[in-house]
């Protein structure tokens, strides 16, 4: 197996992305400050979660993590764990959509509600689709020639990073997000999806540790170390999602379920 290297220099192309993250966090904090003045307030825990998610994104994109990722497959896996699981989970728990809905005027809330009830939104809110995008991206990267294309520069690695962030956020929102979602399945169904995700994630990590089917040409020590990061780090992120799902769950009478979901979207 050959060593692991990326073309380019860590952090040199990340600063525009860091600027976007800073602007997004500043906007979130301004909206949260406005809501905290209201009688209903805004949870400090949500603010902390959103900030932590943004910090984790920045940590993943800048040295020393980005430098480690360029030269060692274990660093690459740590970077993708931050980008694809831990940071998106924290961002989801910050409930940015709910904050936006509470900050918009009535006309703006109605437009967002229509968007949430659109056909594309209903498709994206399906937790099974989110699971397929999340795990499918991992499988495609590590068990096909895609990883070598990324390392060789034929596929921009920032596109891969973007996929991991978006897929991770979509999965967190569909399974355990506090933000409203169209036609959200029952808690039982979402727990089943999360259980499948945990099992499949562990299976991918074990295959990588054993060197079976994996199409990544790095030293065995790096491959096994990366598999351990995937296995144990994934457990942490998925445990956080399970806790968030159970903590935020509130039983709703069957007759009032649709009415409650519509109210949540409009509020």
TrEMBL record:
Translocase as a keyword?
Answer: no
Q: Where in the cell is it found?
A: Cell membrane
Per the record, membrane topology reads: Multi-pass membrane protein
Show the stretches that span the lipid bilayer. Answer: 12-31, 43-62, 82-102, 123-147, 159-177, 189-209, 229-249
Keyword Transmembrane helix applies: yes
Identify the Pfam families for this entry: Caa3_CtaG
Keywords of the record: Cell membrane, Membrane, Transmembrane, Transmembrane helix
Protein name, please? Answer: Cytochrome c oxidase assembly protein
List the source organism. Microtetraspora malaysiensis
């Amino acid at each position: 197996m050959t060593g692991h290297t990326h073309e380019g220099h860590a952090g040199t192309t990340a600063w525009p992305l860091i600027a976007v993250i800073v602007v997004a966090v500043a906007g979130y904090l301004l909206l949260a400050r406005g809501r905290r003045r209201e009688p209903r307030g805004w949870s400090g825990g949500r603010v902390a979660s959103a900030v932590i998610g943004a910090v984790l994104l920045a940590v993943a994109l800048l040295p020393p993590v980005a430098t480690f990722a360029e030269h060692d497959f274990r660093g690459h896996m740590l970077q993708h764990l931050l980008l694809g699981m831990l940071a998106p989970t924290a961002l989801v728990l910050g409930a940015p959509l709910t904050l936006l809905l509470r900050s918009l005027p009535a006309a703006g809330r109605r437009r967002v509600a229509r968007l949430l009830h659109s056909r594309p939104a209903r498709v994206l809110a399906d937790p099974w689709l989110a699971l397929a995008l999340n795990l499918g991206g991992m499988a495609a990267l590590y068990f096909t020639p895609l990883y070598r294309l990324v390392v060789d520069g034929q596929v921009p690695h920032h596109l891969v990073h973007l996929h991991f962030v978006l897929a991770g956020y979509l999965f967190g929102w569909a399974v355990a997000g506090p933000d409203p979602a169209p036609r959200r399945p029952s808690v039982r169904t979402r727990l089943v999806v999360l259980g499948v995700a945990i099992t499949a994630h562990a299976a991918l990590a074990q295959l990588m540790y054993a060197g079976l089917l994996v199409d990544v040409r790095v030293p065995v020590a790096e491959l096994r170390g990366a598999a351990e990061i995937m296995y144990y780090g994934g457990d942490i992120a998925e445990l956080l999602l399970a806790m968030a799902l159970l903590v935020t769950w509130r039983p709703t009478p069957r007759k009032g379920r649709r009415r409650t979901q519509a109210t949540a979207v409009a509020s």
